[in-house]
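Blinded run. Sample ID left blank on purpose so nobody reads anything into the name before looking at the predicted structure. Input follows.
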Amino acid sequence: MNTIPVALQAVRDSIAAACRRSGRSPDEVRLVGVTKGVDEGRILEAHAAGLNDFGENYLQEAKRKIETLQHGICWHMIGYIQTNKVKYMSRLFEYVHSVDRIEVLEALDRCGKETKVLFELNLSGEETKHGATEEGLGQMLEKVPFLQHIVPVGLMTMAPFFDHPEKARPLFRRLKETLLLVNEKFSLTMKELSMGMSSDFEVAVEEGATMVRVGTAIFGERP
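Blinded prediction complete.
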């Protein structure tokens, strides 16, 4: 079985190769280790191997880890957000990737602390996935100028699990196109594209991902 540092290096090598194929620098891609179900010791092992960004799906699990691990880690909220738990978000996370409705956006703003947010889009139309429609995204972005503590930095999506990662390419390309369109329409300068996971992050990087959310390829299968 590969150790975490070996697996982490393999992911980094794959990102670098995808960057070469698409004429990008690996410095343009932030690797976020997804630590749902991963214990603190293994997170520290990855951190010791140079991984600084970690993403959590569930607030209660994340809160325990973040309050335990005081090592200068950059934490990302990547899971579905319940509005009644938003009050903890801005204190715990530097980035919130999964803003998918106005209620969450307004609740984050009321926390009173500057928060970097990415807007989650459901581009596949799958009912089992969270995320706004493109119309819903527009409604959220119309609201942003009236909020004091929201820093819009980009878009996020999750592709369906395909039998071949190449099938996810159109969705990743569409997210990048959407970013360019809404930046122009709403006079924004968002740059982040959070897309790609263990099964398809190389294709996502080729299509412009600036953040890839990788769990299994680094930490192995989890319960």
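Unblinding after everyone has recorded impressions. The domain at 4-219 is CATH 3.20.20.10 (TIM Barrel).
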